[in-house]
Each structure stands twice: as C-alpha cells, then as structure tokens.
Specification:
The complex is a heterodimer of chains A (367) and B (291). In chain A, 52% of the residues are buried. In chain A, α3 crosses α8. The mean pLDDT of chain A is 88. Chain A has 15 helices and five strands. By secondary structure, chain A is mainly alpha-helical. The radius of gyration of chain A is 22 Å and the shape is globular. Chain B has a domain at 2-203: ABC transporter involved in vitamin B12 uptake, BtuC (Orthogonal Bundle), CATH 1.10.3470. Helices cover 72% and strands 1% of the residues of chain B. Chain B has twelve helices and two strands. Chain B has a two-stranded antiparallel sheet. The longest helix of chain B is centred in the middle third of the chain and has 27 residues, at 166-192. The N and C termini of chain B lie far apart (59 Å). The chains are: A mainly alpha (367), B mainly alpha (291). The interface between A and B is large, with 49 and 47 residues.
Chain lengths: 367, 291
C-alpha cells in the first residue's frame, strides 16, 4: 500500500525480542482498558471519574485494599495454574474444577476429623498443613487426569478440562446441598463453617497464603530458569517435535504440567474458601469464584507466562475487579462489569497477537 | 415418555446446528474453539432483540448476524492476522462469556412471548436440522464447492497453486460456521430454554465441539452423536423417569459431561484411530501463509 509517497508493508517477523513482546503486551492491556471506557460512556458515565473510583477504592481504601489483596492471591494461584501448561503449549482452562475439588478436599479433612459440628483438638500448624496438602493433591489429581489423557492419547485438553469444570461444579452441589455430607447444619445449601482452629492465620491483616504466592513465584522462576524440568517444558512448548528429538518425553511433560497447574488451582480454592477472612465456608455462590479464575488465562497471556510479571497483572486485575464491583454499585452500572472487562481485555489481547507475527515497515518510495 | 423423546430431539437439533457450522469450519482447515462464546452471544442478543421487539424472526436474525460477525472476527484474527487459532478461539469464548454476562443481566428472566408453534408436537427447527445435515453432506462431498473447501483444509499450498483462493474460501467457512453457531444459540435462548440467566448455555458449545471430533467430520455421524447427547442431557435432567431414587440429581447432572470425556477418549485411542480414523483434515489448526 502506498500513501503520499511512502510505502507501507507488512513483513512477517522471523523472531521477536523479549522486550518488544513485553511492550506489545503492555499496549494490549492499555488498549483494552481504553476500549472498556466505551462501556462507561454508553452508561453515560465519565470514564476518568470511574477509573478514579475503581483505583481509589481498590488500592487507597484500607477495606478495599484488603479485598484486592485477597483477590490478588486467588488470581495469582489461578494464573500459575494456567501458566505452567501454557509454557508447554497446552491449555488448562480447568481452574474452576480444580479449585472446587481443592476446596472440597480441605473441607473433607476437617470433616473426617470431626470438625463439622465442633471444635477440633489438634495443633493448628499440623491441621493447616493437612488442609493445604489435601487441596493441592485434589487439584493435582483433577488436573493430572487431563494431562494423562493428553499425554497418553492426545485427547483435546481444552474440552476435557472444561467438562471437568462442570463435573466438579455439580459434585460440589452434591456435597453441600440437598442433605449432602458437607451441608450446613442450618440447611442453607452451603457448606459447614470451618472451626476456629482450621481458619488461616492472618499476618498484618492478610491471610498467610500471601506468603505462599511469593514463595511460589521464586520456585517457578527457578523452575523455568534453572531446572531441567523447566527447560523441558519450555522446549516442548516451542516445538514438540524438536523437543522429542532432544529426549523430552511428551507423556511426562503433559502429566507434570497439569499436575503442577492443578495443584496451584487447588491452592486457589483453599485460599478463597478456607483462608479469606469472613468466608471460611463454601458459599452458595461458589460458581462465581470458579468463573473468576478464568482471569488467570488473561494474566498468563499478558505476562507471556513470566511468573514475576504475572503477579503485577494479577494485582492489577484483583484491584480492577474489586473496584469494578464497587463502582458498579455506586454508579448504578449493570451487574457483571468485572466479567465484561475480562471479555474486552481478552479480545484486545487477541488482536495484539498480530504484532508478534508481523511488523509494519514504512519506507519512502523512490519514484 | 413422548415428551421426553421430543425434548431430546430438540436438544439434538441445537447440537446439530452448532456442530455443522464447526464441521464446515474445520473441513476448511480452521479450528474454532470459541463455539461456546458465539452461541452465548447468539442466545443473549437474540433473546434481547426478540424480547424488546416482541418478534421472534428479528431475534433469530440477530442471533445469526452476531454469529456471522464473530465468525468473521475469528477469520480476521486467524486468517488475516495469523494469530494462533486456539488463542483466537479462546479469546472469542471469554469475550462472549464476559460480555453476555454484562449485557444480558438486565434481561434476566423469561422471554415472555408466546411459544413458537410445533409440527407434530416437535419444533420445525428439528426438520430444518435434518435437512441441513443432508445439504451440508451433499455440498461437501458431492459438489465442486465442497471439493474446494476440503482441498483448502487438506493441502492449502496445493489448492492455492491450482488456482483456489485459500483465504477467501476459509473466510466463507468461518462466517458460515459462526452464523450456524449464532443460530444454534438463538434457538437455545428463544425456544429450548427461553429464560435468560447468567451463563445459561451450560457448556453446550464445548459439547458441540467434542461432537465434531467424534463425527470424524461426517455430518450424519454428527447428527447421530447429537441425538445421543440430546437423550443423555434429558436423562440427566429427569433421571427419576428411568431410575427413580438412584443417586442424587446433582450426580446425574454430571453424566453428559463424563460421557463427553469418555467419547473423546474412545475416538482418540489407537484402536479407534487405526480402525476408523485418519479423517482429520490435514491442515486443521495450521495457519496458512501465502508465499
């Protein structure tokens, strides 16, 4: 195409340096937020005012900040659950199912110890360790199933993880409603409340799961940068065929990434239902938290699978979704602003993928 | 009993519409995993349009229109921009899921229109679905157009050299696929389950996607699978008709999803693939760059 003597050409990229990829991700994020302003304009609101409200509440209001951090922890786990398989070129959209089962497993431990009806006489550190391990194990099993099927028979992991989401969703209903074993004694269609000793201790007002997020960040950073497994995952993600010639076993890679991813999603379930102050039960609206974990996909894609960058994005989205809910109530926006934001960001991200593949070259035409 | 069967066939017709679109899509070499998002959009916007205008016809048109637009978007991302087809499809799914939650919420509740007429107590759309199966089969396997679509999905380089416009044919396929999915969504939201609720499609898009893999890209097998899953879905809603008192209703609700996984395992197994398979379009999921 020629415009005013300049020739504009699309050229396919052979490779893309890391900093440029990061820049495009950042631009996609900005573009998404800008695009999202349209929704506010349609609702006859000034976007500037609304973003001020959202960020003000999410990060500069002590109550809002606590909510944002809790959600940040949840999204960080959900994003890590997505990132590990993603680095190997596989799609884990089964975070909801994995986190439901993780939460159920934690509650199952308390149930088996007899904590449904009364207090438990057990040392708190031991009990907490059991809850966390149970959640990770259950998530890992659900994830691992998808990984096993992918590795063994190349069964499409997207459909399998999605189906597992619905299966786990109804399994939770079975356990906490209609007289299920975990049902609240009051018969309210939600789970029993955790006894005092099983609730997560708070550090400066935040659940201790916050520390786990940071520990996990270092662990994942080391995994990808220094460990053989991390190298194999990355190699497999870049080119399964080449990795195979280099001795990487596809079967084990798909199992490992889904087991790890599922375990992290299990932690997300543990966090929201057993560690967030004021919750401590599997509420009737558990499906909302399951769907919220899809934000993990966006965090993972924007951060290009980098464990450190993911935390910044997760913090931003944690704040945005909390602030969005607040603004929604305050400014009488429709329900589901946070979901709409998720959709808009995702489509902006897809459009920006173009720049990973192509560059626009503008050259002066000599006539 | 008769009502149960009819209801099953009506569920099957929705799987069929969505599956046929995706089948044509994939025969042309483009994988669209965002079926669920397109169906959600078709169902939600079709529902809102019909509710506001009080006119079913407008509702279906809007459903098809938005489906075609989203199909076009998928084509633009994956054919023109060269974005990974799975990334684009996932994007369309989350876009649909997020936006329809926001857009549809003020319209939560029943449609409030008189129900559409039936023929012999079954929806006329069922007969349309059967006709579409035959038409798509005929066009794909007996006409020059179908040959073009299939060659673009198998060997795009060869097709291009022999004078076909790969990009244009693929665009037509994805637009058709999107339109069918949007229509399927509209039939779901306006006829099968005319009560809007947050994410009320319940994964039917993903089940339809699995049915396309199951069908080995044959419209008749797709229809058979759709009927099977229609029966299964109704059974999971009404287990007391056949197995009174057996297991909780929530356990029954898991059954169609478990069956989807089992079916996928079956068709992915070595036994199945060596016995029946090898029908996968060669270039499925691979972006094509014209040299």
């Amino acid at each position: 195409m020629t415009v005013a003597g300049y020739q504009i050409q699309l050229r396919r990229r052979a490779s893309l340096p890391g900093w440029k990829a990061a820049m495009f991700s950042f631009l996609a994020l900005l573009f998404g937020l800008l695009l999202f302003s349209l929704i506010f304009l349609l609702a006859d609101q000034s976007p500037r005012e609304i973003y001020k409200q959202i960020f003000g509440y999410a990060f500069f209001n002590s109550y809002g900040l606590r909510l944002s951090i809790n959600r940040f922890i949840f999204l960080a786990f959900a994003s890590y659950a997505f990132i590990i398989p993603f680095r190997a070129g596989l799609w884990n959209i089964g975070m909801p199912g994995q986190l439901y089962m993780g939460a159920l497993a934690s509650f199952g431990v308390v149930y088996l110890l007899g904590g449904k009806t009364g207090e438990l006489s057990i040392s708190q550190p031991l009990l907490l360790a059991m809850l966390v391990l149970a959640a990770m194990l259950a998530g890992a099993l659900v994830g691992g199933l998808a990984g096993f099927l992918k590795g063994k028979w190349n069964v499409n992991e997207i459909v399998v993880t999605m189906m597992l989401n619905f299966i786990a969703f109804y399994f939770v209903s079975f356990m906490i409603k209609d007289g299920g074993p975990f049902m609240n004694l009051g018969g309210r269609g939600e789970s029993f409340e955790l006894p005092e000793v099983a609730r997560a201790p708070l550090l400066a007002g935040f659940p201790y799961t916050l520390l786990m997020v940071f520990a996990l960040m270092f662990a994942l950073q080391a995994l990808f940068a220094r460990m053989s497994l991390g190298y194999q995952i990355r190699a497999f993600g870049k080119s399964p065929l080449a990795a195979r010639y280099a001795g990487v076993k596809p079967f084990w890679i798909s199992i490992m990434v889904f087991v790890l991813g599922g375990a992290f999603a299990g932690l997300a379930g543990y966090h929201y239902f057993a560690a967030v102050p004021g919750v401590y039960k599997i509420a009737r609206t558990y499906g909302y938290f399951g769907d919220l974990s899809f934000y993990g996909i966006i965090c993972g894609l924007i951060s290009l699978g980098n464990p450190i960058a993911t935390l910044f994005i997760a913090l931003l989205f944690g704040g945005l979704s909390i602030g969005g809910r607040y603004a929604q109530g305050k400014l009488h926006l429709g329900f589901g602003v946070d979901y709409a934001l998720m959709g808009v960001l995702m489509i902006s991200l897809v459009a920006f993928q173009f720049f990973y593949n192509y560059q626009i070259a503008i050259t002066k035409k000599d006539s | 009993m008769l009502a149960f069967l009819i209801r099953s066939l009506e569920a099957a017709m929705i799987f069929t519409f969505a599956g046929l679109g995706e089948l044509v899509d994939q025969r042309g070499g483009v994988l669209n995993v965002g079926l669920e998002g397109i169906m959600l959009f078709g169902a939600t916007l079709g529902f809102i349009a019909a509710k506001i205008t009080g006119n079913y016809f407008i509702g279906f048109m809007v459903g098809m229109g938005v489906g075609a637009l989203l199909g076009l978007a998928h084509g633009f991302f994956s054919i023109t921009l060269g974005v990974d087809q799975v990334v684009s499809g996932m994007g369309i799914w989350i876009f649909g899921f997020g936006m329809t939650t926001y857009i549809g919420n003020p319209h939560t509740g029943p449609l409030g229109l008189e129900r559409l007429p039936t023929v012999f107590e079954i929806s006329p759309f069922f007969f349309l679905a059967v006709a579409m199966v035959v038409v798509v089969w005929f066009v794909l396997s007996k006409t020059g157009w179908g040959l073009n679509v299939r060659s673009v999905g198998e060997q795009p380089e060869v097709a291009e050299v022999s004078g076909l416009k790969v990009a244009r044919i693929r665009y037509l396929c994805v637009i058709f696929g999107g339109m069918m999915s949007g229509f399927a969504g509209a039939v779901y939201g306006l006829y099968y389950n005319p009560v809007w609720n947050y994410n009320f499609l319940m994964g039917w898009g993903f089940i339809s996607l699995a049915l396309v893999f199951f069908s080995m890209w044959n419209p008749f097998l797709l229809f058979g699978g759709a009927v099977l899953f229609g029966l299964l879905w109704q059974l999971s809603l009404n287990p007391q008709m056949f197995f009174p008192g057996l297991a909780s209703r929530y356990i029954w609700r898991m059954v169609p999803f478990i069956m989807t996984i089992l079916v996928l395992i079956l068709i992915s197994s070595n036994w199945f693939r060596t016995r029946w398979g090898a029908a996968t379009p060669e270039a499925l999921g691979k972006p094509y760059h014209k040299e």
